[in-house]
Design a protein that fits this description.
With about 130 residues, the protein is an alpha/beta fold. It contains five helices and five strands, in the order αβαβαββαβα. Strands 1-5-4-2-3 form a five-stranded parallel beta sheet. Helix 1 packs antiparallel against helix 4.
């Protein structure tokens, strides 16, 4: 699939309403506990797809910041190497699950999963937050 075709598929998925069906399957998601463990050990890349204003309240330490509104322009920043697990996180998991489904449709993103519960649950648990580095 060409880069232009991939971007069109991604754009179509990202325009779906927020209430669209959330993907829930073992190969699509990870628990918040697993995500934190994977991030802290360096085994996975955590990509925070919340918008900049949402990230201003704090982000997970070592998370990469890639707002959903910039995904089409910055698609190359998402690793596709099967040996490099990538975890998408948003506020509640609605956007990260939709983004995951869009990436899977593009092909080549079998290493990507979304984090159940999102940053709202991270914050609720009192886990560490850092000021975003832009």
């Amino acid at each position: 699939m060409s880069i232009l075709s991939r971007r069109r598929v991604l754009a179509a998925w990202l325009l779906l309403p927020c209430c669209s069906v959330i993907a829930r399957a073992d190969d699509l998601s990870v628990s918040l506990e697993t995500a934190r463990s994977e991030l802290e050990s360096g085994r996975s890349v955590l990509i925070d797809i919340r918008e900049s204003g949402e990230q201003d309240g704090g982000v997970a330490p070592r998370a990469r910041l890639l707002p959903m509104s910039q995904l089409r322009q910055r698609l190359a920043e998402i690793p596709v190497d099967p040996a490099q697990p990538v975890l998408l996180i948003c506020n509640t998991q609605n956007r990260s699950s939709r983004t995951l489904k869009a990436l899977r449709e593009l092909g080549g993103y079998g290493n990507v999963r979304f984090v159940e519960g999102g940053m709202s649950e991270w914050v609720r648990r009192g886990w560490p937050l850092v000021k975003p580095q832009r």
